[in-house]
Structure formats: structure tokens, C-alpha cells
What we know:
The chain is mostly helical. The protein has helices at residues 2-23, 29-49, 53-76. It holds the Pfam family DUF3953.
Amino acid sequence: MLKILRYILSVVVILFAAYGLIIQNFKYNHIMMFFLGLMMLVMGLEEFQKERKAYGWLFFVVFLFSLFVSIKGFLLN
């Protein structure tokens, strides 16, 4: 279940990134960062399930940072 969710989130992130690069319109970067953070959260949960807690905590910290960045993007736009 988590693997499928990770694949879906990675496709969404790639689509937002490709749209921004092709159109040269970066106003949706905060949404891309939000989905990237969710993907990091899912990856962290997968690592916790595999009993690799160091990587799990690292992904969780990256999730919190990208969530903070995306919230700042939502508030500034």
C-alpha cells in the first residue's frame, strides 16, 4: 500500500516539476513541495517498517522541513 502511494506521489511531483520547467511558471512550487513532503513521509514510514530507524527519522525531518517550506509558500502567495 505504501509503495503504491509513494509511486503516485512521485508521479505527481514529477508532473508539477515538469510543468514548471517547460512553461517557466513556478507559481505552483509550494504545491510540489507539499507533495514532495508527503512522499518523504511515506518513505519514512516504509523505512520504519523495515526497522531502519535512522533513515526513517531522516525522512521524517525532511518531511517536516518541506511541509514548513510549502506552508510558507501558501501564505506568501
